[in-house]
What does this fold into?
Amino acid sequence: MESSVLSNLLFGFSVAVKWQNFGMMIVGSALGTVLGMLPGLGPSTGIALLLPLTFVMPPEMALITMCAVYYGAMFGGSRSSILLNIPGDGAAVASCFDGYPMAQQGRAEAALAISAIASFIGGLISCVAFVAIAVPVARFALRFGPPEYFVLMVFALAATAAISKEELLKGLISMFIGLMLTTVGIDLQSGVQRFTFGTVELQSGIDFVVVIIGVYGLGEILKEYQTLRMKGETSVQTKFGRVWISWEDWRRCWLPILRQTPIGFFIGVLPGAGGTIAAMMSYNNEKQLSKHPDEFGKGAIEGLAAPEAANNACSIGAMIPMFTLGVPGSGTTAVMLGALMIYGLQPGPLLFQNNPEIAWGVIASLFLSNVICAIINIPLAGLLVRVLAVPPRVLYPLVIGMAFLGVYTINYSAAEFVLLTLLGLLGYFMKCYKIPTAPLILAVVVGSSMEQTFRQALIMSDGSVVVFFRSIICNVLWLLAALSIAWPFISDWRQKRKAAA
Amino acid sequence: MRRDTVVGLFSVVLGGLYCAETLQIRRATVGNPWAPRVFPLAISLFLIALGVAVLIVDRKKAALEGEKKGLEAKKAKDPGYVKLIVGTVVLCGAYGFAFEPLGYLLSTLCFMFLLLMLVNEPKRWISNIIITLVFTFALWGTFVYVFDISLPSFNLESLNLEEVAGWIGGSV
It folds into this structure.
């Protein structure tokens, strides 16, 4: 690692340990852990709901808080998987497979401890990898012009939309709806009004925070209403012995943690793949590599450790494209990228040059948040899981109230309340009809810059589309975009061939 | 109707409406006059094409499945969920109109109490009142004193009475 990187990292630590930033890191980690635990409220919704509250903070503190919330949510997601067999978010699904059987066998303490330990180690290794990779990637990204950026965004969106063969078309529809929403308002290049229907409130466009809170937050709650009264009262274990693991548990887990962390990190760097895929892939990998695969699904501790490490590694990896290229790789990083833009910061390679206190402060905060989350999630596990006993019929109205107040703070106007409600209905419709929402969110965040870079590139070339194939970077990115669309079909074909053989 | 048929039709109709609206966009007076239309037009065409593709794939699937109904496993649902959704949407809309004229405290107290009565059921009215009071005043304190954000106070002047009268068909 270069000495300049180390000195920058030290500078980052000096920013992160300022008492205000450190205090918000603790608050963010605790809030994130709680939000991550609550089924239906994943990190994306959590950050979106808390985002308006960070508007009063300086940018580095706001970003540090959001990263801490994201990180805390990744730690917390597994708590409800282990204790209730209900994952806090998609990435914690794999933690149910062995975490819940462990709790059923009276080993909840070991399950809670190993999930936090694995998350901690996975996160820590990934933070080091982040520091090593971020600067070279950012330097490379300085070669990007408008055509390269446009194609990069096409790739990011295509990869997110094409998660599976079944959902490919619907993922693309979701993406185009998101792009459609970004075209509302006054066109930045020509000053022409588009899709405002004579409404003054729509002239400045639809704020992405409103879309995220509406589609993720309100939409999710409306969907949860379908089964609200059928869930009954939640009974959750709140009394624990010592939350820790035995030497034998550690002996079984250390290698799975170390070998699944790089996989999770790599999946995180790829746009679109996300924590769910990282956790599921690492679980399946570990099952194949294990000496006793028959124990998986029945409370094998390494079956919990592997996805937890991969999941946290993935969340760090996902920040690389966001910070270095200015392109989000997941719904949550899309929210954070949007937050950077709200502060008037230019995400991407120049962030490291123009705002080192933010870039390096946030990177250093990842190391510290990792430690804070481990402290919160191991000794305080018994206290925090009491939140799971709050019934959803009380929780959901409170979240709705928070969502509206959050939206008010964006423009200090209640005009967007109606828009928020309509977007909530759109989110509900999408969830009911199994249209993935992540591509919409990504498109809403990058849509405006995508159109601007598209038009800038065309101005550069006097309207010739050849400009989008002008460099090796463009062509490689087109190839990757095509490959991500084709991949679900290739993978399906390979599986069928394997089954036939 | 099958789930994907709805999605396909939704995409085609949305794309069509968006396309029609795109063609109404004024020409730019600077640069290429058609520039503001290009990106939206491409989006609308993709939406229509994807909608048609979903419909074709769905028809093929339906033919394979022999149009059997109930093939998609349906999750058991709360029979009263429609009431919850409609009630929440109506309350959210009303909150939007009442927030600025009635002020934060009055509108939020009413909104939260009614929402809790709807979702948490009227039989828990005591806890609903307590939660409403704690939530409303705790957030008010946090916003006003911690974040230094001013929230609207009661202001009947900002309520456009003529507009309200228009909605209810009366006159002021």
